[in-house]
Design brief:
The chain is an alpha/beta fold. 45% of the residues lie in helices and 21% in strands. The chain is built from 14 helices and 12 strands. The strands form 4 sheets. The chain has a 4-stranded parallel β-sheet with strand order 4-3-5-6, sandwiched between helices. A 3-stranded mixed β-sheet has the order 1-2-9. The chain has a 3-stranded antiparallel β-sheet with strand order 10-11-12. A hairpin with a 5-residue loop joins strand 1 and strand 2. Helix 10 packs across helix 11 and helix 11 packs antiparallel against helix 12. The protein is globular.
């Protein structure tokens, strides 16, 4: 399967089993004389590094390996990557490859956007979540002490390779991170995604998984084309995320992004789509995405105030009142507090 992201600088997304085996040919055709910097993490590289290195045969490359986990998405590691590239004399005609999940993808893309004021990079996501979310759309970021993704830019990849074989090695917990994001796409734009996840047993080996990935990315690419820099309609992709980021941080990232998004959506459904609440929670329970949280309201709202959708004492929230459709509401933070307290 192939999708094209039609922006000022368009690029293709390739989806399928063993799609990584197309990487070598792509590099020969486009980066024959380039040095490559692979940015990955220790867990991903231990499991899949050999597959990637096979595709890099004949190329000069170095590796920068992060420690697996959200804590690695830091300004300190960002500077280390940039210094590493400079010490090894990477030039504007060279290439970064992001090989991993969302943390690796976000920090690699930001590094590529900053180094020498921008050089090419490609995404090779290895998680379900990054495949349908962070690998496409051009958002780059690292975290600051004050909150998630507060330092970043918009910078699009040159190509994305989504190999569904990589997803089979995920733990059940982290595979379900991606399921939560897929549920989000179903809630905001495509009822058929939610219905399929609800009725079928979607797992790492689910035969129709590439089709679900494609459906999600069809939505994302269309929204990004309409609003690349996230000033309007692109905000709908953040359904459930305002509370999710606050939940992640309050849990010290023990609750991962997708699971937090599921809980964030649950709060929104309870407040704005009550007649659907029982059905929604039933799906969350089916995939072990539902559990109780009791984080302090003040701490949650404090982090929500750093959300990019906030302005002064108001914030945009994404609301679903009918499956497959959504709207953006601008509300006061006092009302956001009530929504959280009514969880």
């Amino acid at each position: 399967m192939k999708l094209s992201v039609d922006l000022e600088n368009p690029y293709d997304i390739e989806i399928g089993s063993n799609i990584i085996e197309k990487l070598n040919r792509y590099l020969i055709e486009n980066y024959k004389n380039s040095k490559i910097l692979v940015i990955s993490d220790d867990l991903v590289y231990k499991i899949h590094g050999e597959k990637l290195e096979k595709e890099l045969e004949g190329f000069s490359y170095k590796k920068f390996i992060l420690e697996n986990g959200e804590e690695s998405k830091s300004t300190e590691n960002l500077v280390k990557i940039l210094e590493f590239a400079a010490e090894n004399e990477y030039r504007r005609n060279d290439l970064f490859i992001a090989f991993g999940g969302g943390v690796v993808g976000d920090i690699s893309a930001l590094s590529a956007s900053l180094y020498l004021r921008g050089l090419d990079f490609i995404m090779v996501p290895t998680t379900f979540l990054s495949s349908i979310d962070s690998s496409v759309g051009g958002k780059t970021a690292v975290n600051l002490k004050a909150g998630k993704n507060l330092c970043g830019s918009f910078y699009q990849p040159k190509k994305v390779f989504i190999d569904t074989e990589f997803l089979k090695t995920l733990s059940d917990y982290y595979f379900k991170d991606g399921l939560a994001e897929a549920i989000k796409y179903g809630m905001i734009r495509d009822k058929s995604i939610f219905d399929e996840i609800s009725k079928e047993n979607v797992s790492k080996t689910y035969e129709n998984l590439p089709s679900i990935i494609k459906k999600c990315l069809d939505i994302k690419k269309d929204v990004v084309k309409e609003d690349e820099k996230d000033f309007g309609i692109r905000q709908i992709l953040n359904y459930g995320h305002t509370f999710a980021h606050a939940i992640e941080i309050n849990s010290n990232f023990k609750i991962s992004h997708g699971h937090a998004v599921a809980l964030g959506m649950k709060i929104m459904v309870k407040n704005f789509y009550k007649e659907f609440y029982d059905d929604f929670v039933k799906v969350l329970k089916k995939y072990d995405l539902d559990y109780n949280i009791d984080f302090d309201t003040d701490e949650i709202i404090k982090i929500c105030k750093l959300d990019k959708k906030s302005r002064k004492d108001k914030i945009n929230i994404i609301v679903v009142k009918k499956l497959g459709t959504c709207e953006i509401l601008n509300i006061d933070f006092k009302d956001l507090r009530k929504i959280y307290e009514n969880r």
